[in-house]
Amino acid sequence: MKNYKLFFKLSFGLVLAFVFAACEGEEETISLTPGTSLLISGSDEILTYDPTRYFVRGHSIDEEYTWTITGDGEASVSEVEGRYGEYVSVLAEEVGTYTLTVSSSNGLDGSIIIEVEDVNEFIGVGSDTTYIYEEDYLSGADTLFFPITISERNVDSTAVEFEVINGTAIEGQDFEILNKNNVLGFSAGQTEAYVKILTKDNITAEADRSFRIVLGDILLTGDGTSAVNHAPDSMNIGQAVIYIRDDVKTVNLIVDFAEVEVDEAGNFFINLALNRAVEEDVIVEYSIAGLPLGSNADKTNGSVTIFAGSTSGEIVLDIDPAWLEVGEDELVLDIQLDDVISDDEEVTLGQTTEFKVVVVPEEEEE
After folding, report:
1. How does DSSP assign 16-75, residue by residue?
2. CA 54 to chain centre
3. Helix, strand, or coil here: 224?
4. Alpha helices by DSSP H, 37-170
5. How does DSSP classify residue 210?
6. What is the number of other CB atoms lying within 10 angstroms of the CB of residue 55?
7. What's in the keyword line of the UniProt record (predicted)?
8. Can you say whether the dihedral through the CA atoms of 233, 237, 238, 242 is positive or negative?
9. pLDDT tens figures, 237-250
10. Distances (CA, A) of 9 to 23, 99, 162, 335, 363
11. What is the pTM of this model?
12. Which of 283, 256, 282 is nearest to 355 (CA)?
């Protein structure tokens, strides 16, 4: 038993001596790898034009490292600054198989096989069908931005031309394209650019009008695997149909509930609103069912005018004191918006067009 304890103490002491000796060189790294070759850590599959880091395991600042890369195409290796040569960045420009090799000043070597793949840099439209509205311009956006995208990445500067093909929407009449010479430019690394569309407002009610944007020649791009290409025909991303819709404006009653009870005489106001001001007067016609014969309670006489530039109006009812007298029957007035009259044909009735006013007489005292 004593011999066993003595062996344990000696072994533990040797381990401690090894650790303390290694700590004396603060910049050195302890390596548990075999001493006959160098091991490289890093991915064995990378992409073209994708800088990727590799490092040698068990490095020491007391040694110098020399890195090289060979293979099926153009590739480069560069040391990462401030890392004593153990870290490098590899950049391959072509698809293929490459061997990254490192040698140390003490005569050790190591290597790793790297497979380099490519990614599809396809250019296409952001959406094959897009709906826009005349009102988008008037609401404050000077231009509408339709995206043209490059998939995955864009290594070098890219430029592509596009064509605008009129349909039921006519350029210059329904819209304008603001890009100079119908060309889009992408800086290196930029994967999205925009066709700038300015819609033109009118006051005519029309069906959806359409035009097409078709991508043309790629005027500028990188070489080889850094080049941007059109997608195969099967992907069908080379053109888009743009639909322009009317900027429909709506008139609605502004009420909290479908009906309200009234138990006081005097003027009662029912608000209505146009969701966006227009440059023409808007006349809203309405009807009231349930009024007693001969009553002149409808003070706005069946129509309300929302004046040009305004968005609100009100129906005025004069609640007759006689309706509230003890013993009178409950009176129900059904109000209905019926029609809109305006030179702007795009103004119409909305969804909230009905309201009920229930006049409740006083109850008899018991």
Report:
1. HHHHHHHHTSTT-----S-TTS--EES-SEEETT--EEEEETT--TTS-EEEEEEESS-E
2. 36
3. helix
4. 135-138
5. E
6. 17
7. Signal
8. positive
9. 899 999 998 888 99
10. 21, 47, 81, 101, 106
11. 0.65
12. 256
Cβ count near 87 (within 10 Å): 19
Q: Would you call 148 helix, strand, or coil by DSSP?
A: strand
Lowest pLDDT segment from 162-171, 185-194, 226-235, 287-296: 226-235
Parallel, antiparallel, or unpaired for β 209-220 and 109-117? unpaired
Angle 280-313-305 from CA coordinates, rounded to 5°:
45
* DSSP structural state of residue 231: P
The first and second tokens of residue 258, run together, are 């479908």
Q: Extract the tokens encoding 39.
A: 């091991």
Other Cβ atoms closer than 10 A to 337: 21
Helix (H) / strand (E) element for 4: namely helix 2-23
What are the structure tokens assigned to 184, written together?
A: 């889009």
Between CA 55 and CA 126 the distance in angstroms is 40
The DSSP call for residue 283 is E
How far from the centroid of its chain's Cα atoms is residue 81's Cα? 38
Specify the 3-state DSSP secondary structure of 253.
strand
Instruction: Summarize pLDDT for 113-145 with one digit per residue, the tens.
Output: 999 999 989 999 988 899 887 765 544 456 788
For 345, residues 6+ apart whose C-beta sits below 8 A from its C-beta are 203, 204, 205
> Within 13 Å of residue 210, how many CA atoms lie on the same side as its CB?
8
Determine the residue type at 82. Answer: G
Q: Retrieve residue 347's tokens.
A: 């103004």
**3 state SS of 118:** coil
CA distance 78 to 125: 38
- Collapsed DSSP state (helix, strand, coil) of residue 214: strand
Cβ burial, residue 158 (10 Å; 0-12/13-18/19+)? buried
β strands within 93-222, DSSP E: 96-104, 109-117, 122-125, 129-133, 144-150, 158-166, 175-177, 183-186, 192-199, 209-220
Asked whether 291 and 336 are in contact (CB, 8 A), the reply is: no
At 136, phi and psi to the nearest 5?
-55, -35
> Within 10 Å of residue 169's Cβ, how many Cβ atoms?
21
Could you tell me the two tokens for 102? 């490192």
Residue 280 CB neighbours (<10 A): 16
